[in-house]
User: Fold these one by one.
Assistant:
Number 1:
Amino acid sequence: MNIWQKYVIPRTVEEAIHFLTSAPGSARPIGGGTDLLLEIQQGHHQPVHTLVDVTRIPDLLRLEVAGERLFIGAAVPVKIITESPLVRHHATAVAEACGLIGGPQVRNTATLGGNVAHALPAADGMISLFAFDAQVEIAGPDGRRLQSIQSLFKGPGQSALNLNSEIIVGFYLPLRKAGQSSAFSRVMRPQGVALPILNMAVWMERDEQAIQDIHIAIGPSGPVPFRATQVERELIGKAPDVIALQRAKEAIHHSIQFRSSAMRASAAYRHHLSEVLLEEVIGKAWQRAFELEAV
Amino acid sequence: MNDQRMINLTVNGKPYQLPEIPGEMLADLLRYRLKLTGTKVACGEAECGACTVLLNEEPVLSCSYPAAKADGANILTIEGLSDIHSTPTADGGLIPLHPLQESFIEYGAVQCGFCIPGQIMTSYALLKRKPDPSEEEIKYALKDTLCRCAGYPTIIHAIQAAAKTLQTGQPISAPAIEPSDRAGRVVGTVQPRPDAVAKVTGKAIYTDDIQFENMLHARVKRAGIPSGILRKLNIEKAQKLPGVAAVLTAEDIPGEHYHGLVIPDWPIMIGIGEQIRTVGDALAIVAAETRQIATQALDLIEVEIEPLPVIDHPIKAIQENAPRIHKNGNLLKHIKVRKGNVEEGFAQADVVLEHTYHTPMHDHAFMEPECSIARPTPEGRMEIYVGSQIPYSDRNQVARALGVPQEQVRIIGQLIGGGFGGKEDIAGQIHAALLAKATGRPVKLLFDRQESLIVHPKRHATQIRVKIGAKKDGTLTAVETELFGDTGAYASLGEKVMTRATTHSSGPYEVPHVKADCYATYTNNPPAGAFRGFGVMQSAFAIESMMDTLAETLNINPVELRKKNALRVGSVTNTGQLLRESVGLMECIEKVEAEMNRLSGGDPFTPKPVAAAPHLVRAWGFAVAYKNTGLGGGAPDKAGAEVELRRDGTFQVRSSSAELGQGLPTVLQLIAAEELNQTPRQIDVLLMDTDLTPDGGPTTASRQTFVTGNAVRHAARALRQLLTSELAERYDVPPQEIRFIEGLAQVNGKRVSLSHLAEQMIESGRKPLASYTYWAPATRPLGEGGDMHFAFSFAAQAAEVEVNTQTGEVKVLRMIIANDVGTAINPLGLRGQIEGGAIMGIGHALTENFLVEQGRVITDRLARYRMPSITFTPEIIPIVVEHPVSEGPFGAKGVGEIVLIPTIPAITNAIYHAVGVRFDRIPVDQEKILLALKEKTTTA
């Protein structure tokens, strides 16, 4: 069985939706294809009749400040995102996360759209977008709409999008203001089945003394990603000192049930790493918040 | 729909318009349609970078890049690189190679060569963006471009040298590699590989690069179940699928139904009612017009298997009522070593320690997956194109399966993209031959990576108990070991591997009382066989871990403890062999110790937190090893070679010995050049063809430099004598007045060209050719005492690690590596072996773990079996120690395996010194480090 029967490269969003909805068999949008093609090849995904390549639609390749927001097109290769001064300034955590997706060659083709549509609970790019409460622009047969990134997940590997008729156009993130910053980090376990075992993204707003607001996303922390709001609450209004961090770590323990996965990591190890990562990303973001360089 | 869509693309400056094929990836388009086979496919899962090409100036993985997506793109492959830039030479000339290609050659970054196109293309993309990259930037860019020969340090240096040339226009600066202290005119000097140019330009041909007219593509239906009885097999639907040329089952095998290197216990296919012993067992084979059709046909074969209990561990295998995997039972061999009386030895000891260690299966993960092409010739013979470590054994096994005399089969060895022991057994050779015979057409059988991981024999998983006794001063009094080795479903070389593990299990030490018992058993796991280190890697991990524990118990410096007991000239080994010469262990230890003390300020084993980041703790670890050269144990060890003077005045050296990337052609070329007083480029080396080259024996046991090296040396000498006497007679001068120089003979002051001499000899019916079969010194079987091996290599290594006490992550920062190699005949190749062995050792210590659960392979993708990438590269400080063997060619002995063996315990010992966590199993588990550290802080 061939991985696909037909490979089409539309030039507009409308054309893409048309290809998806009019395909004689199953159809899927494809970005870099680094996940989807391998899943089909390895029998983890049904073969697809029509692959609709969205990487040449100008609308999905935009990376720009749009009014009060930063827009990252769903088909922008993650390498471009990593190196983009705009992203590095406004969404440092996203740039950091994109720099860790796959390897250098994969980053030339992989996209954030694919990373999010794939709906894995710990995808680096997706977790970083979570910390920004990104709004996702979706196009379908009924037109376009904006949806919060939180609403896109049904379960591990299951997107709430209808990938037979819808595509992600891009992501809107807030522009960085004075006192704001973000950071991303992760830990790998290279032994045996090598996979990242925990990642964490943080977005923060601070003043001289204290954290005014904070968003924390940890992956994987459940079947679908979510923000660690109880942990956030322990930190708001406080300086990230030993006591506050200790409270925040305790909140991780109370509010997040890490899973033990065979051959990857035990829940206990993930818990421990979540504390290490928490200190690291909060420390970085706290520092960075006052290092606002011009774009 | 009838709209044939077209792909328009430019490749290496040439425009192409090609019809779109559903499901086709860019690598397939380049390789099979445009015949640009320089782009390699090693994993097919976007993991290894071998298939990297530049697409619109950016490196992408062509194995998983849809060809249709490349419509309109501009693509650069390795074949197009030399048109872009050439390399200046010192004399103002130009080499028609890109500086990266030239620097990869000069620095010895090219070994098996399979990953090299990907390495060079990735590096080219890097240099376009960063003309002067730092080591960190190189590691970041090449992170996912894997090399299993793992000359990563050399790759880094080569890239930096090319960058310099591109910036300055100066020639490539020479690599910092010293010639041998025992160098001759050419032997022991730094020389490029003869096949390097082909490997850096993409012109080197590996088996899958060959296409024949009318060729069929084969695939194998595998059991997928580790234990059972094959009850039904229905191939009718598969046979009827359009495009299928043949579907064969066990019934269709005309000859022997089993293959195997020592014991023929491995079924070519499982017949109805027969036993399935491992997931990779073949049930049926298919040949079809395309690989896609053959794959589709596999799904149409209906199989019914009655499952049987799965034996997944050697200890379960030898329990009394265990179901039998083979009719003679599950114990392949009980191997014994006895010296003195261990009870007496333990009674004399002040300290007795005992502990059990575990090592997992490892996969060779050679970059080139197995590929065989069988082609029936019009004369009725069968040709097999394959990269094999033992061509003559392939010939024998294929002939037996076909039921024909072995002369009817010709193995035409191709370049091998890495072997490491994993290409000694039959993979697809017999299946391809059966299908070719049935269809009368050429048949290619290419394994995908998943099949490669499941089918070929692995490194033996072991459980090793060590009991050691010593005096207070550290003198060893007794070592007792008990080993269990998992040889999986079939014997392969299991008995030999586990024998080596057993005889080396008390370490390179003189111990008065030794007792070792090893149980090599069958299980339902994938078979285990040869793998670089051949059992000794496993037992060295056990004994060298124990030696460090003993040092701590006795409060003796670990290096001193080893010195006290080290084998030296005059020592008697645990098998009763008196070592009469060439024991460079003490020199290896002393040199590594001196360097380690220099780098660590004199206290290498004290944990040192990093100043700015005290959660990172560093320390050194130390280990030693020895490893036999050659088959030993009474096995006749011989190699044949011939050397011919050709009409054009150049020489050809011929032997069936295999080149897997280790550098044998250079070694043989240098030896012949030295003997014949020629420059290396006057010598062509032809290997691995059973019609054209004499039997060099198996390429295993670090034996080829010694055995085939000697055969070539003697053949070259014989040819020199033949040519001398021919000239002496022809020109009527005494033989001692005849000299050979490059391309010429000097006869009494007169110059005679060698091509002229060749012509004259051939015309008068005498072949300017000499053959020689070299028999290595006889050895004795285990248990009889005397010389079990004709030579041993020795090594000492020190590793500095950095442990992150917050996460448990471990990094190897520096390694000091000393090997006693007798004589370094090929210093450039030796460097590649040293670096590659160390990095493979780092992989074994820190990442690699071939996971099998109830006989099923978990690590069945390269993404899951994690071999080290360039980011694991430490600083490597190599030290070459040369204690010549009088019988070795120019004093040389083997080096291919010893380079890997001490690395693993050096690293685990270093981790212990850094954070006090002792690992008795590998790979080191960072989670365990962390948990142990947490426990310590809680108790403290």
Number 2:
Amino acid sequence: MSEVIRLKKGLNIKLKGSAEKVLEKLPVPATVALKPTDFPGLTPKLSVKADAVVKAGDALFYDKYHPEIVFTAPYGGKVVSINRGERRKILEVVIETDKDAGSASFKKADPSSLSGEEVKEQLLKSGLWPFIKKRPYGVIASPNQKPLSIYISTFDTAPLAPDYNFVINGQLATFQTGVNALAKLTEGKVYLGVNKDSAFTGVKNVVINTFEGPHPAGNVGVQIANTKPLNKGEVVWTVNAQDVLFIGRLFETGSVDFSRIVALAGSEVAAPKYYQTLVGAPVASLVQERLVEASYHLRIISGNVLTGTKVGPQQYLGFYDSMVTVIPEGDEYEFVGWATPGADKFTASKTFVSKLFPKKEYTINANMHGGERAFVMSGQYEKLVPMDILPVHLLKAVLVNDIDKMEQLGIYEVIEEDLALCEYACTSKIEVQKIIRDGINTMIKELG
Amino acid sequence: MKFIKNFFERTEPLVQKGGKYHWLQSVHDGFFTFLYTPKTTSKTGAHIHDYIDLKRTMSIVVLSLVPAILMGMFNTGYQHYKVIGELASTGFFEIFVFGLIKVLPIIIVSYAVGLGIEFVFAQIRGHEIQEGFLVSGMLIPLVMPIETPLWMIAVATAFAVIIGKEVFGGTGMNIWNPALVARAFLFFAYPAQMSGIKVWVAGSQTADAITCATPLGDAAAGTISYTASDAFFGLIPGSIGETSTLAILIGAVFLIITGIGSWRIMLSTIAGGAVMGLILNAFADSSALSEANQVFFGIPFWHHLILGGFMFGAIFMTTDPVSASQTQTGKWIYGFLIGILAVLIRVINPAYPEGMMLAILLMNTFAPLIDHYVVQSNIKRRLKRATVKGQTA
């Protein structure tokens, strides 16, 4: 096995309410939904109308500019509603599930015996293609591009993140099938980022890199930057560890199976643990009657507390999300909050007494804890980004819309999640992730 | 405490746009957020945010200044009674209260003028009030000689806030350290009143001004008028907050523990000063120097660190995150050059035996240039990586 790559920079945010390693299988929810808004930059075109009956794996909508990329139903049933927002933007395509609706059938084959083109076609048709993202930019991979290599991170270091060593339990063979399929898509290699005591070390047909260190060591972008940093013009693809299973199952069974193991975690969850449900399951089916009784408001997040999306119980789980986090909303005033000693206030800085209790776990709410200011402090971001990047200078290049500078300072190497910790720790409360996504959108618009 | 919150919540509509007191909006918001951390929750990006904000950051710097303030007050009284010859017969408490009465008005004037201007600018711009002046307002009194007239403090503070900061866009945008801009303004606008020997020791209401030079002034003239221990503990004449190295170092420890002050800058500044001191020592015996110069060249290198404003500048002024270098590598270079320049200007410059203020202002000016080269090196690394790879591929 290769040597261990130790990353020093970063921070583990110690939140209360990590999921216990117990799995409960939930019944098929009454509805599931696919949200075009989960895919940055996508312009969706509908393939179905309301009231259409679909099988699992039938297309619901497709990408206007890449019609071959389709997004398929996670479960069979009837399309009950297509919810739209402002300017008729499609927000959700909701399906009322029906056990008897069945699944679309695809080729059942060992991917090792297929050609790259055949694998690609199967992934595109089945709607699994969107699970493959590309770097730079962190958007859905373009099927006509040839990636240098494919990267999979098998551990997530984000606060309260699910443990994939637990999730993968008993599904390693399927994972291997998925990896074999992916390997067909690149002339380069498939790289697997693993942590210490990983369950994935036995996976074949891959190059294994072992990483050690605090968050964001588990981010695939950080792993790429610390092995083979991306240069201008290079493209690699990335897939989330659990999403490789969907690909594996497709080739093993010839049908799509979108069941996903989701960690329900956070200080406001009565008994945090893992649940097996579907991609696009209703948030309510996970959180209902599983949260603590609270007199204050709660914030439910599809994803983790750094990069996730705020959702209501009537909304649906994000396409890529393997966890739901529930924390207090914190929409309350705090008397001279900035002056308290703060034994119960976790901080990335060293300005609260809590720094003396490194082992403690904390409840953190969604309050901003201060007003937005200009950049004042320096050196704060650098400590949290284990990449050869000058985060503040990159952000400033984005703010002044200087495309050359963005390129020179490494916009190709980062996506929002890689700098999410900076946003958490920022004294000036700068919207780091939004700025980075704006920069990426500018790059896509200007350079394609 | 609830009634305060109710008061602010009730008055909020009055100060909104179109309200009766809309011109008070920034002030209202300033006091409200000072007393109550707002209930705003995150809308985009990360759902959780650190508890630290600019208010806490700035108040930590002010806290770290407290030892220097107290020691400055004590020393003000100490120098006064020493010069009038009544030191032995005056109690500790009396000495301190004398200093307190002398220093407090300066602090009040500085804050009143500075915050007043900040409030007006915030209102004109429609901003929230920015906390930067909490620190500047305390630094300004501490770098002033005790006998600086209050009207001069007021004018200097106004100059610093308007020309030193607000014209650039407010906190976070300024090029120079505002407190040093105030000091430099007085130094160049009123040189007669701000240097020489009349301003360093507080007189009483009855007596005429007391004349006494600072040890640096004496050393420039070729006499050594201090002991190292007095200089370390702060019992020498000088600007209010700068004399006690010990008190400053206590503040430094606090700044480093809390991570608010950059230890890189502090350390490299001190290293730069020490290195320059050693270089000067090497030339102290040179016959090309006048006798007085030989004395000043020859003072032990580490005395430069405890005399004058060197340590105060190294700990509290160079580390201002806005006007300092912002890259980690840049900080080392920036601090080191300040140390070198401060001692160089102090000893070689014939007009004024202190160099910290000018050295820091000069390096503030150059900090963006230093950062530019650090950023360029990052860019070059990235380019090189791409070309090397291009060749092998």
